[in-house]
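Entry 14. Ran structure prediction on the chain below.
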Amino acid sequence: MSAGQARETGEIFGPRMTLFADVLSVGVCTALVSLPVVTLPAALSTACAVLRGAREDQPATAGRYLTMLRRRLRVGDLAAGALSLAGVLLLWADLALARAGLPGAPLFAIVAAAIGVYAAVVGLRACGRPESLTDWRAAVGGAARDSVRDVGGSGLVLLAVAAAVLCAWMLLPLAFLAPGPLALALTAVDVRMPHRPGGVTALPESLPE
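Output, structure tokens:
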């Protein structure tokens, strides 16, 4: 932290409290942008990129979030959202079939749930990677490798999701704040990887679809 960010004597709200408020504001923006569902991956990925920039003293504000999001919501981002939605619907359909009493339903349900959890972890970790800003394939490929190599990080992702769901279940308005802490957790899990360079969050001038 730079000297200019140090809390002055008598100052009530230091830089950490300011960052916490920024995380919540980014979370609200992420929740609102995610309402169409197909925009969820791009919304969460942008939130992670904005929060990652705080390591280099870049503003982690709602304004910067919206600016970055406007420059990247393209066909590739919407396609990632559509594929995510299709995966969720497929898992829901599989579990519904298992509950219908098909032969071998218990084992089928366990396998389907395990695949769904793994896919969710990979997708969430992909959102936390810098590559998701421009190349979802690279982000998903890297996240799949990290999910296997870094089991502890994958566990932290699941705990972060569980905490977000629990907060939303306890008090529904918290659902609009939960994406902020979730994005912060995903970013922290990715940054803790020893091979990961930190802080590269600037969008290039031209983003491919």
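Residues 75-99 form the longest helix (25 residues). Will compare against last week's run tomorrow.
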